[in-house]
């Protein structure tokens, strides 16, 4: 019985691994394929010629990558800075028209951005924000706001009220209660939202084009056109490069969570 | 820990502020529609050449993607800053349809009379873009042509005309693939070719005058196309057609010639694949160089385009390195090139073919009518 | 509990940011959507045209996205549930490292990967036929509505699973252990005890996924060669081919309405059940 169960688990995991890594293997192979066409089932020749192309000095790949990461980090900070108070109000406060507010925050993702970006750019130009890092960070923050606000709201409303009341009864000020009880308990959710916002910023294309270009260019500007027109090698390599900060940021967050938060939660 | 992070962020912020302030003074900003290799062309060849000839200048180029979608993005960016005095884009590379709209909307400036190479492009497409007069506002970067790509190992006697293609597809269902009309211009080009062949009045479609009643005669051609579609494989996009040829799922389909050569050069297509232009022909279009009306560096932009449209650069860059059909008149380019390179460009499609069967796209309003008719009568 | 006034102050920065940088520009779009170009003034002309041309696509989008959301929900609960209740240490470790990867692949690249993976002569069919499990002639392409659903599920499941697994890990284990001691089967525990407690997080994750999938352009563009197709493709088409912002914005409005209705039902539901929805 146990052996049977182990076998079932193993088969299910193998299928899952195939489903997840099958497409990713494709990406890995394309990134080093120099010729690959029918009827060959695997590339006829391998090499790093396309890596050289991506990293050629004129291509400014490293500068774009640096910009992408920097913008993503600031986007995370900006969105947490507005989403934590907003989430607190929506999750714990007596907010009038609460549902309406939540629906409002869905808008930037739910209204396909195609038709809106020109108008956003128009306003950014009139504010002098175009071509600045601040402008790009703001436009990414708007895109990420739905994630940070909704998830922060869920995280704060899941915090056990009795723990807060206990702390308040012991004479802690409201801010102390927030700092020592509410925030640490909501932190895992907030951190998850930070990861998503980071990824959204790292992959954002349209907003960056309208607001950042020509002064600020990021990695997805290269990725998007390459991928859409089927330049598989370039797109795969770019996606692989973007994996580094993405995974790195997540590991950083998890380590940070484990070390700082879990210790506090336990005590 | 927290302190460390704060420090890190503070220094990052300083870097941020520094870079935006230290933006070099002389940057020529080029925004290019079209495929990635058009961006590479400026990054790797034209940009460095311009920088070499104009010390103190840096060329910065960004790509926005193929087809009208890519050029639409550029247009929207110009519209968005139309209230400003100096625009941040100096040179744009756009499709015909969007160049026409941009001229109509006053987003471009006339410059062709001011550059030395202005008289080297005399083809119709240098003056009229899908029926809109763009004379003086644009210079063709290169001419792009659609054609049918096929695998000669599988198709020994490829169909030479739309009639033969119809018969061939009926015998080989699913072996021909194209991307409809919503998803990329190669499918639109094929549909246009079909209309030139079967809708009648092809000359009027191309040269005008516009007649809104004409579309009443298209029902038969569209019904035939719908029947033809029963036997084809639909592909997701221009790249989608090439992608299916890459895996041998289709053996024939309409493609952009320049994209086809790029895929071969990058090892994603069998080098044995060939191109042909079926009777009565398929459309092509140039990509245009243009200068936004309030470009901050208009003078440098003119110099840049002058360089880009000089016979030497057209020969060396456009034809020899990138395998594109030249934008300026062929005779100026041919004399600047060795014969072998010239002939290589016309391996599959001869200059005579190109002259006879390389058509322009239809007049703007006809073009709209064709696309809308397809939406209503063919894909529904 | 925060007072009304404090709540409004706290939410103000986010609302101001949203209002200035998104709602204000969006209002132009709404003006476009509701204006009548032929007669001048206001009208529903754009909506009538959008519906006439693309009603099938609207329905198609709704079905595709709803179906994907349901599958994502089921798979995420399964993954989160196993991570919470599973006992096999090796399997847990493998699953934990496995499930997140697609999260880091941008949509446009996911679409590209699936296009080369799911095609008729794509990698999946190549692998299956070379193991002898399937006859090469039986290979079919998944590059239609199934391809879109597969791509959405592949890309969005890790997002929901990450949220759900996090919420499950934070649960009080005592009830779970008690039920387990009473001999309850793990599936019963998962559906009867664990899922109801993480319902909020699950729903938030699913609604966010639903919203994201509604507005993705690259996936239907790169995968689905058939008609009908998704609304975003039609929007891009209206703008790029005809510069028709009116119909495009009307379609955008329809898209938002489809999202808002779902989100609103969810928010109402929570209120009716007496608790706060989140």
Characteristic key phrases:
heterotrimer; B: 380 residues; alpha/beta; D-Maltodextrin-Binding Protein, domain 2; 2 domains; 9-stranded mixed sheet; 16 helices; C: 278 residues; mainly alpha; 76% helix; 0% strand; disordered C terminus
Detailed description of the structure:
- The complex is a heterotrimer of chains A (267), B (380) and C (278).
- With 267 residues, chain A is an all-alpha fold.
- Chain A contains eleven helices and two strands.
- Chain A has one domain: MetI-like fold (Orthogonal Bundle), CATH 1.10.3720.
- A two-stranded antiparallel sheet of chain A has the order 1-2.
- In chain A, helix 1 crosses helix 11, helix 3 packs antiparallel against helix 8 and helix 8 packs antiparallel against helix 11.
- Chain B is α/β, with parallel strands linked by helices and 380 residues long.
- Chain B has two domains: 207 residues, D-Maltodextrin-Binding Protein, domain 2 (3-Layer(aba) Sandwich), CATH 3.40.190; 162 residues, Periplasmic binding protein-like II (D-Maltodextrin-Binding Protein, domain 2, 3-Layer(aba) Sandwich).
- Helices cover 46% and strands 16% of the residues of chain B.
- In chain B, the strands form three sheets. In chain B, strands 1, 2, 3, 6, 9, 10, 11, 12 and 13 form a nine-stranded mixed sheet that branches. In chain B, strands 4-5 form a two-stranded antiparallel ribbon. Chain B has a two-stranded parallel ribbon with strand order 7-8.
- The longest helix of chain B has 20 residues.
- Chain C has two domains: 34 residues, no CATH class; 182 residues, Orthogonal Bundle (MetI-like fold), CATH 1.10.3720.
- Helix content of chain C is 76%, strand content 0%.
- The chains are: A mainly alpha (267), B alpha/beta (380), C mainly alpha (278).
- Chains in contact: A-B, A-C, B-C.
- Chains A and C meet through helix 1, helix 3, helix 4, helix 5 and helix 6 of A and helix 1, helix 3, helix 4, helix 5 and helix 6 of C.
- Chain C: This is Sugar ABC transporter permease.
- Chain C: Pfam families: BPD_transp_1.
**CATH architecture of chain A, please?**
Orthogonal Bundle
Shape of chain A: globular
Number of domains of chain C: 2
Strand composition percent of chain A: under 5%
CATH architecture of the largest domain in chain C: Orthogonal Bundle
Fraction in beta strands of chain C? under 5%
| CATH first level of chain A | Mainly Alpha
Organism (chain C): Stappia taiwanensis
Domain ABC transmembrane type-1 (chain C): 58-266
Protein name (chain C): Sugar ABC transporter permease
Family (chain C): Belongs to the binding-protein-dependent transport system permease family. CysTW subfamily.
